Amino acid sequence: MKKNILIKGLMGVVLAGSMVSCSEDYLNTEPQMAVSAADVYATVDAARKGMIGVCRGMYNQWQSMDQGFNGEAFISNFYGETAGQDFYEYYWSYIGWNDQMTLDFAQVSDYKMCNYAWAYAYTLIGQANDVLGGIDTAEGDAQERNFVKAQLLTLRAHAYWRLLQVYAPRWIDSNEGNTECIVMRLEPTTGDAPLVTMKAVLDQMYADLNLAIELFENSGSVKRSFGWEPDLSVCYGTYARLALLKDDWETAQEMANKARANYPIMTADEYQAGFNMPNNEWMWYSSGDLADEIYYWAHGVTYACNGYYACNNPIGAGAINIDTYRQIPEGDIRRNLYLTEDKVSSFGADKWYDPELISEVSISPKDDKVNTRNLRSIRNWAATLPQVAEHGFSMPYTAADAAESNGTIWQLGAQFKYWCLDTRGRGYVSFMRGAEMLLTEAEAAYHNGDEGTAKRLLEELNAQRNENYTCTVAGQALLDEIRFYRRIELLGEGFNWYDFKRWNLPVVRRAWVANDPTSGNYPIVDAKVVPVDAAKGWRYAIPKSETDYNNAIK
Question: Which residues are within 8 A (CB) of 330 and not within 5 positions of it... i.e. 6 or more apart?
Answer without folding.
Answer: none
